[in-house]
Specification:
The structure is a single chain. The chain is of the alpha+beta class. It has one domain: 2-Layer Sandwich (Tetrahydropterin Synthase, Chain A). Helices cover 25% and strands 31% of the residues. It contains two helices and four strands; from the N terminus they run ββααββ. It has a four-stranded antiparallel β-sheet, with helices on one face. A hairpin with a 2-residue loop joins β3 and β4. α1 crosses α2. The structure holds zinc ion.
Length: 132
């Protein structure tokens, strides 16, 4: 099994509804996003998937988030159950990236998306068998 990880970042504001603390007020982060792919087979170049290809796919997603107030974007602006936490951001990026990666002609899949909202705090989303 091979694993590759690509990292990028974007800047965006958010505030957390129902949060009992300063995070309830609007503030910004430089979010770090790590995407990890896994697969068992390399292509004829010896690559699981070209880093550049992965970066381009992530770039498209991150561009929609960059310099935005996340609370104003779908799917974070409806209800309140989708507060733009690091957890929900990780899932959002995962679910947008997954079909793009699965469309490529290779054997890898998205294993994990990790979102860092500060240098010492991150949340990840991954699919485990028998769960969402
Ligand atoms: Zn925050």
């Amino acid at each position: 099994m091979y694993e590759l990880t690509v990292r990028t970042s974007f800047a965006a504001a958010h505030y957390l509804k129902d949060h009992d603390g300063p995070c309830a007020r609007m503030h910004g982060h430089t979010w770090q996003v790590e995407v990890t792919l896994k697969g068992g087979k390399l292509d004829h170049r010896g690559m699981l998937l070209d880093f550049q290809k992965v970066k381009n796919l992530i770039k498209t997603i991150v561009e929609d988030l960059d310099h935005q107030c996340l609370n104003e974007l779908e799917p974070f602006n409806s209800g309140g159950e989708k507060s733009p936490t690091a957890e929900n951001l990780a899932r959002y990026i995962y679910e947008r990236l997954e079909p793009e990666i699965n469309n490529q002609e290779h054997s890898s899949h998205v294993a994990l998306v990790r979102v860092w909202e500060s240098p010492d705090a991150s949340a990840s989303f991954m699919r485990l068998e028998g769960t969402v």
